[in-house]
């Protein structure tokens, strides 16, 4: 058995008879009180998020998790379909689970899907992805005094700042953590 001090982001635990995923946690030690851990948990069964306070020595029950590399296949209505490249099994995920990662999903792009008891609980993107520029207005002559940027649109529909030399149709590398242009691909 682990203690609440062992909580980590992305970990699955058995809490009140339900399996929950730790979204965030913070270990606190107020001046004259005992230490505690403030955690935000999302229930796998209901999908609801709750804030919970544990004593730092309170026992928790970790639940085994399994991570699989999967390819994004296509969007089916509101849902997203991923395929296991080893056995070609498909998994359909709700838009709430995909959340902001949808901005970086391209066909056949690899992601890591984490499963708890055969149910997908989270998606992790690689640190960078290669996207095609769909709209890049021309840079204005004389705008090159300092590191001048322009707003471009990529194939997933998101907009970002990029250097003036980027043109429509080019492939660029984008950092998935902050959504910024990195380099040409």
Description:
By secondary structure, this protein is mainly β. The chain has 3 domains: 2-62, SH3 type barrels (Roll), CATH 2.30.30; 66-124, Nucleic acid-binding proteins (OB fold (Dihydrolipoamide Acetyltransferase, E2P), Beta Barrel), CATH 2.40.50.140; 128-184, OB fold (Dihydrolipoamide Acetyltransferase, E2P) (Beta Barrel), CATH 2.40.50.140. The protein is built from 1 helix and 16 strands. It has one helix at residues 95-98; strands at residues 2-3, 12-15, 18-28, 36-43, 49-55, 59-62, 66-76, 79-83, 90-93, 110-116, 119-124, 128-135, 149-154, 159-163, 171-175, 180-184. The protein has a 6-stranded antiparallel β-sheet with strand order 1-6-2-3-4-5, with no helix packed on it. Strands 9-8-7-10-11 form a 5-stranded antiparallel β-sheet. Strand 2 and strand 3 (18-28) form a beta hairpin. The longest helix has 4 residues, at 95-98. It is flat, with a radius of gyration of 21 Å. The model has no long low-confidence stretch (mean pLDDT 85).
């Amino acid at each position: 058995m682990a203690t609440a001090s062992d909580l980590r982001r992305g970990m699955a635990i058995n809490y009140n008879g339900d399996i929950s995923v730790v979204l965030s946690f913070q270990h606190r030690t107020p001046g004259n009180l005992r230490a505690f851990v403030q955690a935000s948990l999302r229930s796998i069964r209901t999908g609801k998020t709750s804030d919970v306070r544990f004593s730092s020595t309170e026992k928790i029950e970790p639940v085994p998790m399994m991570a699989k590399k999967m390819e994004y296949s296509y969007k089916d209505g509101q849902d997203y379909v991923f395929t296991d490249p080893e056995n070609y099994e498909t998994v359909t995920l709700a838009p709430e689970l995909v959340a902001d990662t949808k901005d970086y999903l391209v066909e056949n792009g690899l992601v890591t899907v984490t499963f708890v008891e055969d149910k997908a609980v989270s998606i992790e993107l690689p640190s960078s992805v290669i996207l095609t520029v769909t709209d890049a207005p021309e840079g204005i002559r004389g705008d090159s005094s300092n590191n001048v940027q322009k707003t471009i649109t990529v194939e997933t529909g998101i907009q970002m700042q990029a250097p003036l030399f980027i043109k429509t149709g080019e492939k660029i590398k984008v950092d998935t953590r902050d959504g910024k242009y990195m380099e040409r691909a």
